[in-house]
Amino acid sequence: MFNHLLLIRLLVQVVEDLTQFYKETFSNYQTTKQEALKETLRGIHFGLNCCGPTGTVFDGANDICPKKEGLNILVTTSCPTAIDGIFNNKLHIIGGVGIGIGVVTVRSVTKRRTDVTPSLCSL
């Protein structure tokens, strides 16, 4: 149980750290216009299909965002929301993997104890 709470806290911290990294990178790009920051943001934007910290055309990130047409220009997901969504949508999968690992660990420890016990009793 404690491991699951620790895993959830770790995931929350990862989401917060990634969101903070994105916001700092975006802010630094707005002030310096460095090419490396531009490519980093472009990779994030295209990978998560998001645009800017607010998801509006007012972010000034049109040159590094996925191209939209028609009314989709006005409906864009902000990158902090997309980062949060990735982890929230996959949380049940991550939890299932954690539970599976826990079950395998408990079964292997239990099996090991039953394998060792008969040999100790025969002495």
Automatic annotation (TrEMBL):
GO terms for biological process: cell adhesion; cell differentiation; nervous system development; single fertilization. One of its GO terms (molecular function) is integrin binding. Residues 1-17 form the signal peptide. The keyword Cell membrane applies. It is found in: Cell membrane; Secreted, Extracellular exosome. Keywords: Cell adhesion, Cell membrane, Disulfide bond, Fertilization, Lipoprotein, Membrane, Palmitate, Secreted, Signal, Transmembrane, Transmembrane helix. It comes from the Eukaryota. Its main location: membrane. It is a multi-pass membrane protein. GO terms for cellular component: extracellular exosome; plasma membrane. InterPro entries: CD9_LEL (IPR042055), Tetraspanin_EC2_sf (IPR008952). CDD domains: CD9_LEL (cd03152). Belongs to the tetraspanin (TM4SF) family. This is CD9 antigen.
